[in-house]
Amino acid sequence: MRLSQFFLPLLKENPSEAQIVSHRLMLRAGMIRQQAAGIYSWLPLGLRVLENIENIVADELNKAGCNRVLMPTLQPAELWKESGRYDSMGQEMLRFPDRAERELIYSPTNEEMIVDIFRSYVKSYKQLPINLYQIQWKFRDEVRPRFGIMRGREFLMKDAYSFHIDVEDARREYAKMYDAYHRIFARMELMTVAVNADSGAIGGSLSHEFQVIADTGESALYYDAAFDEVRSGKVQMSGEEMRGLYAAADELHIPDKCPVPKDRLREARGIEVGHVFFLGSKYSKAMGVTVAAADGAAVTPEMGCYGIGVSRLVGAIIEASHDENGVIWPESVAPFRVGIINLRVGDARCDALCEQLYDTLGGYMDTLYDDTDARAGEKFARMDLIGLPWQVVVGPKGAEKGAVEVKYRKSGEKVEMNTESVLPHLLRGIDPLAQDSATGAG
Ligand code: 5CA
Fold first, then answer.
1. DSSP state of 73
2. Whose CA is nearest to atom 14 of ligand 1?
3. By 3-state DSSP, what share of the chain in percent is helix, strand and coil, each rounded to 5?
4. Residue range(s) defining the domain that contains residue 346
5. Positive or negative: CA dihedral 17, 311, 242, 175
6. Ligand 1 atom closest to 151 (CA)
7. Co-location of 67 and 102 in the same domain
8. Ligand 1 within 6 A of 273 CB?
9. CA 418 – CA 425 distance, rounded (Å)
């Protein structure tokens, strides 16, 4: 993409409404635009990141054997009357009549509709277990939408729902999803702590929230220092060992009963980017679902559900990865992997070299080419602000001898090299986990 054609409406000033760094940077970098309280348009730069996150989530879930579906955002109110949540969801759920005066709701979550799909097709234990997921917009009329897309009213969620013949199998799936979540967040270079949590309006008897540790997080939590040791790479642990570690949301942490000694207990704030629930038969029972077991008996299936805040993740990643100049995107979610800066547009050598690089790099990775006639200082600041992992700077002096400067945004390290070396240099920086799976390893 040529920057001269790219819709990138940057803000020069810090927007006064933004209280946290991710909200500020998303507005300044032209990623989102607020349209109403908690409701946003996604502009080209922001949408590219959102889609990359979506793809990582879908990729890991597909590998874990989940089936992607897409359910409507608008749903008949009747389903919600069946489950009993029509009343309990209260004002958070948006309700309105269609022209025939039939009541619709804008989905805040999808347990009811997935159970309705399940009961229409699945009649026997032989069809179990099954895990269905979607990535779809939700609406919750939050009392206090804030921090930009972090707590929106309209937001993009990945929601998965699984069905099982018994509790044991539902617990197996819960553990599998728990491990898949660690892989998903690791691919975005996020370290999460999975805390025991209250299951709230979704319900069920067991739940874990996946929290990105950040001072600006809305949740308070307590956890075993071992999480930090795993995070820093000092200690290696299996999924099962991780699941055994103590971590609790504020409301479930009872100091007198905490098994972790004081000097090993960490207190922090976190951003909840995912939440997994063991639901039991709460919804299947309320909505009268049964399947035939091996002995022919009618059994109520056990369920789990597993959410990820896809749009919230954009903010969480920025909170975890930025500096005073702007965003620093992990390679796996970056809107472009590399930005080429032409310092002297109109200079024949610079133009030719940039076009050649744009062509070569563009064949292998998403490439943004700053072909505008802005001043050098503005080009540098803009490229740092939007946070692409790599920058290739082409100026008249270097161009004379076919040399360019390659900058790694994360460390600020700059290396001069000839044009031919740029592509191999950049290709070494690709998402290591994606590479593992591409070669069948790991
Ligand atoms: N049905 C289940 C998951 S299948 C469910 O709705 N779970 S949830 O309520 O915990 O939401 C899942 C995830 O969506 C949360 O972990 C959070 O990351 C994200 N989320 C929830 N509310 C908002 C919001 N107002 N803005 C942005 N993201 C949100």
1. S
2. 309
3. 40, 30, 35
4. 336-439
5. positive
6. 26
7. yes
8. yes
9. 11
Cα of 274 from ligand 1 centre, angstroms: 7
How many angstroms does the Cα of residue 170 sit away from the middle of ligand 1?
Answer: 21
Residue 124 CB coordination number (10 Å): 12
Do residues 173 and 162 lie in contact, with contact meaning Cβ atoms separated by under 8 Å? yes
Contact 197, 299 (CB under 8 A): no
**Residues 376 and 384 sit within 8 Å (Cβ to Cβ):** no
CA-160 nearest atom, ligand 1: 4
Best mutation site among 107, 312, 313, 319 for ligand 1 pocket (most ligand atoms within 8 Å of CB): 312
Tokens 């971590």 label which residue? 247
Are residues 317 and 342 part of one domain? no
Within this chain, do residues 167 and 93 fall inside the same structural domain, yes or no? yes
Alpha helices in 155-290 (DSSP H): 167-187, 226-231, 239-244, 282-286
* Residue whose CA is at the smallest distance from ligand 1 atom 1: 109
Residue 276 near ligand 1, beta carbon < 6 Å? no
First to last CA, the chain: 34
Tell how far the Cα of 210 is from the centroid of ligand 1, in angstroms: 11
Check whether residue 239 and residue 386 sit in a common domain.
no
Ligand 1, atom 19, lies closest to the CA of 309
Whether omega before 129 lies within 30 degrees of 0, making that bond cis, reads yes
Is the Cβ atom of 274 under 6 angstroms away from ligand 1? yes
Q: What is the dihedral of CA 315, 321, 327, 330, to 10 degrees?
A: -90
- Taking alpha carbons only, the member of 318, 326, 322, 324 closest to residue 384 is 326
Q: Please tell me the residue having the least CA distance from ligand 1 atom 17.
A: 309
CATH of the domain at 371: 3.40.50.800
Question: For residues 191 and 212, is the Cβ–Cβ distance under 8 A?
Answer: yes
**Do 284 and 212 sit in the same domain of this protein?**
yes
Tens place of pLDDT per residue across the chain (442 aa): 999 999 999 999 999 999 999 999 999 999 999 999 999 999 999 999 999 999 999 999 999 999 999 999 999 999 999 999 999 999 999 999 999 999 999 999 999 999 999 999 999 999 999 999 999 999 999 999 999 999 999 999 999 999 999 999 999 999 999 999 999 999 999 989 999 988 888 888 889 999 999 988 999 999 999 989 988 889 999 888 888 899 999 999 999 999 999 999 999 999 999 999 999 999 999 999 999 999 999 999 999 999 999 999 999 999 999 999 999 999 999 999 999 999 999 999 999 999 999 999 999 999 999 999 999 999 999 999 999 999 999 999 999 999 999 999 999 999 999 999 999 999 986 444 444 443 333 3
